[in-house]
Amino acid sequence: AAGVGQQWVLVEMVQAFYEAPAYHLILEGILILWIIRLLFSKTYKLQERSDLTLKEKEELIEEWQPEPLVPPVPKDHPALNYNIVSGPPTHIITVNGKECINFASFNFLGLLNNEKVKSAAQASLKKYGVGTCGPRGFYGTFDVHLELEERLAKFMGTEEAIIYSYGFATIASAIPAYSKRGDIVFVDEAACFAIQKGLQASRSNIKLFKHNDMADLERLLKEQETEDQKNPRKARVTRRFIVVEGLYMNTGDICPLPELIKLKYKYKVRIFLEESLSFGVLGEHGRGITEHFGINIDDIDLISANMENSLASIGGFCCGRSFIIDHQRLSGQGYCFSASLPPLLAAAAIEALNIMEDNPDIFQTLRAKCERIHKALQGISGLKVVGESFSPALHLQLEESYGSRENDVKLLKRVVDYCMNSGIALTQACYLEKEEKCLPPPSIRVVITVEQTEQELDKAASLLKEAAQSVLN
Amino acid sequence: NHVVHNGGLYKRPFNEAFEETPMLVAVLTYVGYGVLTLFGYLRDFMRQWKIEKCQNATEREEQKDFVPLYQDFENFYNRNLYMRIRDSWNRPICSVPGAKVDMMERVSHDYNWTFTYTGRVIKDIINMGSYNYLGFAQKTGACQEAAAEVLSQYGAGVCSTRQEMGNLDKHEELEKLVARFLGVESAMAYGMGFATNSMNIPALVGKGCLILSDELNHASLVLGARLSGATIRIFKHNNMQSLEKLLKDAIVHGQPRTRRPWKKILILVEGIYSMEGSIVRLPEVIALKKKYKSYLYLDEAHSIGALGPTGRGVVEYFGLNPEDVDVMMGTFTKSFGAAGGYIGGKKELVDYLRTYSHSAAYATSMSPPVVEQIITSVKCIMGEDGTTVGEARVQQLAENTRYFRRRLKEMGFIIYGNEDSPVVPLMLYMPAKIGAFGREMLKRNIGVVVVGFPATPIIESRARFCLSAAHTKEMLDTALKEINEVGDLLQLKYSRRRLVPLLDRPFDETTYEETED
Hints:
Chain B: Belongs to the class-II pyridoxal-phosphate-dependent aminotransferase family. By secondary structure, chain A is an alpha/beta fold.
């Protein structure tokens, strides 16, 4: 019975075959032929050039010559021969064997040689040794770190602060913790190298606006707004940030913070403020540019600074609201994957903070000295002063270039050498020429500290006038 | 377990083992994470509908209409899994991080959202978490006295960069000493180990170059490679066949799409990988590097001072020539009890870095007392201070390593890594055991480090012990006894290869029997 059933199904099939329309049969026939062709054709991979024999590959490997690991550096390269400082880099500094007055170290409040700071560091050294032997997460958190974070947060008036063990790494780790691929960052052209590296690590879209030009920034923000209206879904998840410095290292002027706050609320952008030079310098109590302009500190989302200038220690910190700072404890690369700050340096920073809080008049004294030398340096033929009158880190640039950057650098070096031979230690501002986004012109860095007396300031000014006269004319 | 004598490249046995995860354990671990995820969703739901109080910090009222700073999903792991066992990390201590340490007691009344300090100090916890391989974390002794002397003379900070006014005579002294210690022509020191990698790799390679990086390289190497702009290709962890294939393909095919030849090829490896406890197969890497004309960057963060008969690192451990390694990088944080990093190599290399390194031009130089600590400890290890303390410490560390690892294997735990590495990962696998192990060991006065996702693959959570020359045999025995107890309590003895315990003999090179259970 089964055999008959099968036969019967076969008959039905053959019948259906005859009854089917012609196009149906032709289509099926073409499909079957196509399948047969695919089954028998050779597969080929796009990537591998399998037409190279083993011998040819070996020949290619033999022939390939790499570049040398590093190109040779000429012996007289200006950046290769460092000044050797024997002894502490304090107010009187011995450079290359010669005693000079220090106008080159960022020791604004003179705390590098302070006895109280040193004894606090000594006490910490006796209790903890030197190193911490671990990152913050693995037994590297000391009570000194917690105390320093609390003190910094209290001093600045924010909820929380976080400490890094290296000044450069502070802002370079903070930016990529918040700004990721696809986010937009508006940054000033004169931003320092650490900010540039942080932005590069974050892989976000970077939009540069002209230095301190709020009209240019507003133009960029408006452009972004029109972009957003075209794609509102994307705009709702794209974070935006403005990164500015309080006191710019490369130009010596301050950012117009009140206008920035207005732009922040108008265009809904967050502000990250880098205060390495302005912490401990601006403001009535040294709290930085927010105190200088009288702005509510909660309006700034993140303030980052390093402790290597006014606090004369090592490391850096970020402060702000807990909502923002707490995130860095798990995603700040320089915080999680690096050993914590040696306790003696943290203790030195705490003592320096104590001194800053107890003597609020040093800031006024420092500003007066800056004004004095700023006025005294005006009118040097061939050199112009770049920077605000109350900025303790000024630049002296050539009024006009003498051909190429190399020539300018050589000329400025002769001015610096003249001053060093006469007892004033100065230095040129050092940059990596190929790596900077917007390379500043060559300049001499003049740093004013609270320890310099008025005679010394006047001596420096007159010496610079002399040097400019003899070298540039 | 495999002993390799690869064509005479290795002058000593290379014993490395990564026992496979037992199937039942893997399944249970996934189940555990599944349960935690479900509960996580439930709690998030309750928090959203205000049934449960949300204890996270929140955005300012004035900025509520800004684009949210964090996506909810990014923090899911943080809120629901990490927060439960958060007390295992960031434990604050208040004494020198030596073999025994004092910890500040902290309690949480709201399941780890906030901590309060009771004010009590837990004293003399055996410290198996700090990177103190040679025991130089001391508050007394020659190193500390020298550092105190330099501190009173020079101060704590420097306030300038190396290229400007921050190059002290102390830095020059340190660099000459480090070059002598490593056996290279020249060396340069930096203030932070992490920054040494992330600021110097971009100076060495750029666009048009190729970087071959190990799978499990540290975040600083990955960041440095990314910032350089070179093409990055990853080879399997310590796998020489994978590396050779990549090298061959790279030279034969050239750059992708344009087919131009690569400018240079840089291989990034580490001496000891701190999460696995494995040691790099350096003889084979050097043989490959020479055959294919590429350059080698060796990061000895954990292996300098900890390996080798006189503590000169992984190059000495294998009996190789330091000149074969093009860039020898390391840190001073682990074996020297200080902070900072160094790069050593030929004079041209170091001269180039002095001119073009990002750190030399923009970052403050090292603090003088820290420099003095390094100088004194290096002299101690080399024996130049007139004592044999350094040599004794290196021996003690090697003995401690062998003893500790052997005993743990005998107890039946799964231990990863090379027999000679002082970093000992003990596998926990299940998420609940991460928190439990840390807390139980602390109850018994032993401080351990536990690591989970994302530092390790999701099912391979582990506890990591860092041995030190400062650990005496009594401390190790105490620790081992407690680990045995906790292992039984938490059922951590997963290993299916039981070692027959030896009679208590002095340490020597005898092999031991192995029985499969």
